[in-house]
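Query structure, 322 tokens:
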């Protein structure tokens, strides 16, 4: 292990076609991470055999038994030895300078999270777009770093690093969540220190063309939305953000979900999904949204005016400074 600040973990399951490229992108770094640890989650497609070819260049660990995605994230982090960690999915890629970019921001006094822009690419590697996190400030302390997360995650999983101490204090990634455990973790982590934004693009994030085609995933996402809206957000914002601002964000999130989700209509055909949305709407006093949606009166909401003004001022200040 190198005497560096950052360990990189790769939690992987059944990603035989991409895992070698992910590992190679880390081995090729001009500044290597303190360690590269692959948590091979008992794959069944040959991923384990590919990973074994790198033994000696990376450290290979395995959970005692196959576990869920979020459990594997926490298991991976628990195996790392440095003060800071990053997780890179087994189908994402570290760009040249990935380690240097994240480590350079991690030394900011009081930082518990660093994030960087990332490129979105197709499974074949074609460039789809660049996520610059434009509205995120250079440094955000609590509660501003929490407030910015309320409408949705403002950290890309492919391009982040977090302090190990912060991970412990936050209780790790919430394992009751299936799809949005990273978003919940960012919010739980916010109260322990600053979020720092890097200026350079650090990684490539692969977009799966069929990710929104799975009704099973759609139901899991809905269950996560309800847990975050009714449990996590009320808990982490209590005493730190005005209740009115929090409720406004929660209502916007529900309205946006109903107006834009590709399976929102079909989900109401199933009892579990219908109950979940009813629970969500009842918890934030928004049953009228459901009625409007059912009668065709609901449209995609615009970002709240206060957020738009805040974002415009932030972008203007960036241009003045730059």
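Result returned for the query:
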């Amino acid at each position: 292990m190198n005497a560096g600040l950052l360990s990189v973990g790769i939690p992987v399951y059944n990603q035989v076609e991409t895992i070698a490229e992910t590992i190679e992108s880390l081995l090729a770094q001009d500044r290597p991470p303190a360690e590269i640890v692959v948590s091979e989650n008992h794959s069944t497609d040959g991923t384990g055999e590919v990973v074994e070819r790198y033994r000696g260049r990376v450290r290979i660990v395995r959970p005692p038994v196959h576990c869920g995605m979020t459990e594997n994230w926490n298991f991976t982090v628990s195996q790392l030895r440095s003060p800071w960690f990053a997780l890179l999915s087994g189908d994402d890629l570290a760009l040249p300078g990935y380690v240097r970019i994240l480590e350079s921001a991690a030394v900011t006094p009081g930082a518990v999270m660093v994030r960087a822009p990332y490129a979105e690419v197709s499974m074949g590697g074609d460039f789809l777009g660049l996520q610059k996190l434009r509205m995120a400030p250079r440094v955000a302390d609590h509660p501003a770093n929490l407030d910015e997360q309320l409408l949705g995650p403002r950290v890309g999983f492919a391009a982040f690093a977090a302090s190990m101490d912060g991970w412990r204090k936050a209780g790790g990634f919430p394992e009751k969540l299936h799809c949005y455990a990273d978003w919940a973790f960012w919010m739980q982590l916010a109260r322990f220190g600053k979020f720092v934004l890097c200026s350079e693009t650090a990684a490539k994030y692969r977009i799966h063309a069929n990710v929104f085609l799975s009704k099973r995933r759609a139901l899991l996402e809905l269950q996560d939305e309800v847990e975050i809206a009714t449990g996590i957000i009320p808990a982490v914002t209590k005493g730190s953000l005005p209740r009115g601002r929090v409720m406004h964000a929660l209502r916007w999130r529900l309205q946006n979900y109903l107006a834009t989700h590709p399976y929102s209509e079909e989900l109401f055909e199933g009892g579990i999904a219908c109950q979940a949305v009813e629970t969500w709407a009842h918890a934030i006093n928004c049953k009228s949204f459901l009625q409007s949606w059912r009668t065709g009166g609901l449209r995609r909401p615009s970002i709240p005016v206060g957020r738009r003004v805040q974002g415009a001022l932030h972008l203007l200040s960036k241009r003045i400074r730059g």
